[in-house]
From TrEMBL:
Assigned protein family: Belongs to the carbohydrate kinase pfkB family. Belongs to the carbohydrate kinase PfkB family. Ribokinase subfamily.
Encoding gene (name): rbsK
Binding site for ATP: N182, T220, I221, G222, A223, A224, G225, G252, D253, N277
HAMAP family assigned: Ribokinase (MF_01987)
GO MF entries: ATP binding; metal ion binding; ribokinase activity
EC number(s) reported in the record: 2.7.1.15
Name under which the protein is recorded: Ribokinase
PANTHER family xref list: RIBOKINASE, SUGAR KINASE
Keywords: ATP-binding, Carbohydrate metabolism, Cytoplasm, Kinase, Magnesium, Metal-binding, Nucleotide-binding, Potassium, Transferase
Activity regulation annotation text: Activated by a monovalent cation that binds near, but not in, the active site. The most likely occupant of the site in vivo is potassium. Ion binding induces a conformational change that may alter substrate affinity.
Gene Ontology CC, one term: cytoplasm
Length: 305
């Protein structure tokens, strides 16, 4: 099984010609509301790829409102076990996203229920030996730490997608088997304070060399694919698959969900990353964070192409 502990948001996406400046109002020519949140997007991808109802569990928090009901039923519809979604007295998380014609975007996130975890909810994560736990950082740091330690205790494999970047993620690494980051998130782990500057000037390889962590590391690098540094070995690049990318929102989440599914199926790290690259690439071919046609057959076609 794959257990995802993380965020759920309702994304409200407005397409605009040019992003509004402070104080300005612009007309939007497109409206899309869709299920999002890093955790839920990863659960979606893992469930679509395994295709086996109940194999993926989503642990998270939603409000007692229409948005929460919608997010839960969308996940249930693709076979995600939603028995461990808590309804809490807060609004469901929302993301307000404006996307400019060239793809440039601004995002404001209201965490809401994602920050209102009831005591004990993370500790009750339904994880067993042989499962893969996946966590990201759109939920409180203490919840991430608790989920990782529960998984460690039962002997499950742990995957931390340290996104969005948080310097405190360094304190979690002792309980992490596989770390998945992009260059910016890696920079935050390597050097507090100057993460943005560092990610733009330092090659990923040298940041990896400076990282104080011995587990498996996967660095996603967009159209170039991923750099894989297996435990105590040299990094090797696994190329992306050629796709016509129109919107990379959610590509990283599909990558992580697919990777976790592959690891749970017993794939080795490199096989898992090849499939994850295909899932990320496919997701970049559609608008929005979730590809409606994502499944193992679609991924296999991309891997072969
Ligand atoms: P993030 O948005 O989290 O920084 P990336 O942009 O690195 O994530 O994308 C995640 C993964 O999605 C990449 O590692 C790659 O596998 C796939 N991907 C993203 N953009 C493209 C693209 N233009 N072509 C092919 N694959 C892509």
């Amino acid at each position: 099984r794959i257990v995802v502990v993380g965020s759920l948001n309702l994304d409200i996406v407005l397409g605009v010609r040019v992003l509004p400046r402070p104080g300005e109002t612009v007309a939007a020519d497109r409206l899309l509301t869709a299920g999002g949140g890093k955790g839920a997007n990863q659960a979606y991808a893992a469930a679509r790829l395994t295709g086996e109802p109940g194999r993926v569990s989503m642990v998270g928090c939603i409000g007692d409102d229409d948005a929460g009901a919608r997010l839960a039923s969308e996940l249930e519809h693709v076979g995600v076990d939603i028995a461990h979604l808590a309804r809490v007295p807060a609004s469901t998380g929302h993301a307000s996203i404006a996307v400019q014609a060239d793809g440039e975007n601004t995002v404001a996130v209201f965490a809401g229920a994602n920050e209102a975890w009831p005591d004990g909810h993370a500790g009750a994560t339904p994880i067993r030996k042989g499962d893969v736990l996946v966590v990201q950082q759109e939920i409180p740091a203490a919840v991430v730490a608790e989920a990782l330690s529960v998984a460690r205790r039962v002997g499950a494999r742990t995957v931390l997608n340290a996104a969005p970047a948080r310097e405190s993620a360094r304190d979690l690494l002792a309980d992490v088997d596989v770390l998945v980051v992009n260059a910016l998130e890696l920079a935050a782990l390597v050097d507090a304070g100057t993460a943005t500057a560092r990610s733009q000037t330092q090659p990923v390889e040298s940041m990896l060399a400076a990282l104080d962590y011995d587990g498996d590391v996967v660095v996603t690098i967009g159209a170039a694919g991923a750099l894989v540094r297996p435990r105590a070995a040299a990094p090797v690049r696994v190329p992306a698959h050629p796709v016509v990318a129109i919107d990379t929102v959610g590509a990283g989440d599909a990558f992580v969900g697919a990777l976790a599914g592959q690891l749970a199926d017993g794939a080795d790290l490199f096989e898992a990353v090849a499939v994850a690259n295909a899932a990320g690439g496919l997701t970049a071919t559609v608008r929005g964070a979730r590809h409606p046609g994502l499944d193992s057959a679609a991924v296999a076609r991309v891997v072969r192409s």
